[in-house]
């Protein structure tokens, strides 16, 4: 699974509509409305790198109200949930 974090700048008057439209795209698993340098953050999860182009450049960037994007590709996922699961399986080195 390949994960991309896409920072989205959107037309301020259309942020809720843009978020809903992006959330409906195949390959997009979550969309967050955020404060900071971006208006929205979309999590894209696909099986192959080629699919990133289809989802992000082919569809997400074309949603009406999207002004621009900045995409980050994740190399590895770390989460509290994953660590707790590993420790509960006895993988903590004991």
TrEMBL record:
Cited InterPro entries: Dimeric_a/b-barrel, Tscrpt_reg_AsnC/Lrp_C
Which Gene Ontology biological process is one annotated for this entry?
response to amino acid
Which positions make up the signal peptide? none
Q: List GO terms (cellular component aspect).
A: cytosol
Pfam families recorded for this chain? Answer: AsnC_trans_reg
Query: Where in this chain does the record put each Transcription regulator AsnC/Lrp ligand binding domain?
Result: 6-77
As one GO molecular function, the record gives: sequence-specific DNA binding
What name goes with this protein? Lrp/AsnC ligand binding domain-containing protein
Q: What is the protein's species of origin? A: Knoellia koreensis
